[in-house]
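#lab-general

N.A. 3:47 PM
ok so I finally got the sequence cleaned up, no stray characters, all 181 residues accounted for. can someone with queue access submit it? mine expired

B.Y. 3:52 PM
send it over

N.A. 3:53 PM
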Amino acid sequence: MKEIRLHGLGGLGTVKAGEIIVYASVMEGNYGNSFPFFGFEREGAPVVSYVRLGDEPIRPKNQVYKPNCVIVLEPAVMNAVDVYQGLKPDSVLVLNTTHTDIDKFDIPPTVKTVALVDATKIAMETLGRPITNTTILASFAKATGWVDSKYLKDRILQLFGEKNVDAFDKGYELTKVIEIH
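B.Y. 4:20 PM
back already:
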């Protein structure tokens, strides 16, 4: 089973991103579950979404404390929350950032793969709003290969339309994946 923790702010589509990952997993014939943790339920407040993926039914419905992957939809969250907490060895970190170099981050030794993308810029250029979920999903898909991009894009098209698929495609193209040894 793979466990994923998504960090964002209310209004960025953090919860919906988790749901889309699960949809893609199920469409591939696997299993998944997702659920959010809001804290204060308002736009701009920190939001965490938890996802589990596997090839067998998934029973746990609690928070993800030891993720295989952390996805950060909004870089400002890193100033308020320890997004690295509990990361398993050989984990994946997906960051929305303007930086193209991992030296700008204090990445723990448990991280093996880092995906960097300026999802906010792509969202602004493509959607006209800083909603980063569809762009960051492309980075997640490129960095992990855990779900098929086709199913992610199908669901994004159903929910949000063609512009968001364009944001996904641009995010996939511009994501820089770095393997740390």
